[in-house]
Amino acid sequence: MSKVLMIDVGGTSVKLMASGHEGFRKFPSGRTLTGAKMVKGVLAATEDWNYEVVTLGFPGIVRDGKVARNPLNLSGGWVDFDFEKAFKKPVRIINDAAMQALASYESGRMLFLGLGTSVGATLIVDDTIVPLEIGLIPLSKSEAFMDRLSKKALNTDGKRRWQRSVQRAVALLQDIFFPDVFQIGGGNAKYVDPLPDKCERGDNQDSFKGAIRMWPGADMLAEPLTTTWRLKRNGKPEKKKKK
């Protein structure tokens, strides 16, 4: 199993974990963060870490293992950026919410709701990972998920109103997707109290397991298939048939 560096890019900070190192490190992100600046920050923060491969959790659309669109809450310069050349290591990219969901998935039908600077979600059904762009789903007549569940809404409107919005959003998503497991994660998951019925709380540090599952040798191996990922058990890629 290769030594993995996990990069979890968020709207407020970039969090880093690596095989053989306890805890995590982080540095600020924000609307001026480009792909190149992110790489520079990671290399500076991990100069004393030894790793062989990189998993990049990206806050946006990933297609065929590549960034498909610049993130809404960061700067540009992500699409077509050569991360492998910059890190001089093999790099695999996955949506950040999908990486966190992958960390906790076991089987069946799981829905992950990530509450951070913005809001993200991922559905995993029978070993197929499907990131969901739920930010623009209406939660009321005038406001969408991204308006009511964001960090800005929590800070501006207060915890009580934000909590009611979370409860309403969870109930709607449960009705739509009917998951066996509904996990709430992200940096603001700790403020969801009490948890909605039939929900569990995820831990941001658990996402490292998702980063590991992007590489051969893990108990599951996630491989890209257009905008989804397909899981292979025991981390064994399918053998190519001889012609």
Features of the shown structure:
14 strands, Nucleotidyltransferase, domain 5, 2 domains, about 240 residues, alpha/beta, 7 helices
Can you offer a commentary on this structure?
The chain folds into two domains: 4-98 and 205-232, Nucleotidyltransferase, domain 5 (2-Layer Sandwich), CATH 3.30.420.40; 100-201, Nucleotidyltransferase, domain 5, CATH 3.30.420. It has seven helices and 14 strands. It has helices at 35-45, 83-87, 96-104, 145-148, 151-157, 159-177, 207-212; strands at residues 4-9, 13-18, 25-28, 53-58, 62-63, 66-67, 91-95, 109-115, 119-125, 128-132, 181-185, 200-201, 220-225, 228-233. Strands 12-11-8-9-10-14-13 form a seven-stranded mixed beta sheet, sandwiched between helices. A five-stranded mixed beta sheet has the order 3-2-1-4-7. A hairpin with a 3-residue loop joins strand 8 and strand 9. The radius of gyration is 18 Å and the shape is globular.
Q: How many domains comprise the coordinates?
A: 2
CATH superfamily of the largest domain: ATPase, nucleotide binding domain
Strand order of the largest sheet: 12-11-8-9-10-14-13
The overall strand count is 14
* Shape annotation: globular
- Rg from alpha-carbon coordinates: 18 Å
Q: What is the CATH first-level class name of the largest domain? A: Alpha Beta
